[in-house]
Amino acid sequence: MSNKPHFNHLLANLADEAKAWPFVEAKNLIKRLESKPDNTGKEVIFETGYGPSGLPHIGTFGEVVRTSMIRHAFEVLTGRKTRLICFSDDMDGLRKVPENVPNQEELADFLEMPLTEVPDPFRTHTSFGAHNNSRLQKFLDSFGFKYEFLSATELYQSGKFDRALLDVLDNYENIINIILPTLGEDRRATYSPFLPICPDTRKVLQVPLTGHDKGAGEISYIDPLTGSERVTKVTGGCCKLQWKADWAMRWHALGVDYEISGKDLIESVALSSKIVRTLGSIPPAGFSYELFLDQNGEKISKSKGNGLSVEEWLTYGSPESLSLFMYTQPRRAKRLFFDVIPKTVDEYFTYLGKIAECDDASLLENPAWHIHKGTPMAIKLPVSFNLLLNLAGVCVAEDNEVMWSYVEKYAPGVTPETHPHLDKLIKYAVTFYKDRVRPNKLYRFANTEEKTHLKDLKDALSKLPEDATAEEIQNQIYAIGKQAKFENLRDWFSCLYQILLGQTKGPRMGSFFKLYGLQPSLKLLEDALNDRLGQKNSK
Greatest CA span in the chain, whole angstroms? Predict the structure, then answer.
């Protein structure tokens, strides 16, 4: 779908000076368009691609949300009409039977056939490709993305790609000369940019061509089943293109102006860019984003199962926090695992909390502005997500009401009705605690020397008034740590985390004790002194 954004000249002038990466990318696109003939007033096309041999995943989300941010920044800078195409390469042949689908045995007979001609193992759609396309669109719709879905099968078979396919045939030798130097000797002997669709088996054939006729728009090849030569049109869905040629043809046919891609496709981008120039078009602007790593710094692999899914993130954190994770440093490899969720949730609300203090120029540098397409809400929460997680662990929260009983004492007047965002965070915190924290809690028994320090801390806190501030409590914790002569006060706090919270990392303890309540905190210290916390490990 196209749109005509309301153009604000003042905002555009401020955006022109903005350093946020979506604006930098948008300005790179503007430079590209300046070199493109007859581009004035034409709709600017953004594209993301999807291979529907599998279900949508977190990389799919990342590509669409980042592209959407750049698209919005471009609209702010220029006021031009834009369109985001989500393209499904659903005419690709099924290479192997996926392990995460039902009725796998029936798919084995359909290997190498276009995904839109493979039966749907889920029994819900006309084909496996149609099923995954539907899942993709529901996935994108659930996040409110504005896009136009395009199917390779529909464009090839309807003839909408015919002109571009004939352009590829017209430039056959030039394209071959671009691709062949990048291939091994065996592959060079059999490579063709055209993959005929066998009219009998419906398989996508990877066969060498015996000839091509540019005037007739035809190619010829040896049928692998009969051994006889066959002639077929390159148009009307009788052929599809090999990956790099297909990508270039798509840019050429659809007039794509901008597309990002993963670092693993840098070589493909370079080759497809050469091909699209050969076809007479300008390659789209874009950048290569880094791929995700797991908690051990290893590349995430779907086959290894060492990644984190969108569904898993949204179980413990908001869609906006996931958008922030995608926004932050897209050119840097980042570790994607469960522990980054609480940190990112807190960072998101930190950015929202700064909205009211931002002037117009600094607002454009705030990630929340880009996440919310220029209309972020100024929200400040009285409690961080990390504090809520630690509270859930100590008070053994099984439901939201337990958590709210502490929060309402900590921040009088704050309720689920006045702070719905906080209420959602509490739900996330309880779920995160039950699933991710409780099974891994391991309290450490305090040794004799540590018990001395814990008793000193208990005595110091017991002398504070009930309404002592978090800062006053924190000062006492610092004082006891210094009195205990810890060379590094981090060791003192690590001791408190392990003994009192059953974990290696934790919150600012003054804030935690304030949220938990002074008397319950004294009871927690008493339990640690009497080894009652360590006894929980066996339960």
Answer: 96
Which token pair is 328? 């932050």
Q: Which helix (H) or strand (E) holds 232?
A: strand 229-233
- Amino acid in the structure at residue 390: N
- Residue 301: give the domain boundaries: 294-380
Does residue 370 sit in the same domain as residue 472?
no
- pLDDT (average), residues 390-413: 93
Which domain CATH number covers 473? Answer: 1.10.10
Please check whether residue 73 is in contact with residue 22, taking contact to mean a CB–CB distance below 8 angstroms: yes
Residue 524 one-letter amino acid: L
Segment (H or E) for 404: helix 400-410
- Above pLDDT 90, what percent of the chain? 86
pTM: 0.92
Q: Classify 307 as helix, strand or coil.
A: coil
The verdict on 166 and 306 lying in the same domain is no
Q: Are residues 104 and 43 in the same domain?
A: yes
Burial 376-401 (b: 16+ CB within 10 A, else e): beebebebbbbbbbbbbbbbebeebe
Q: Tens of pLDDT along 210-232?
A: 999 999 999 999 999 999 999 99
Asked if residue 103 belongs to a domain, the reply is yes
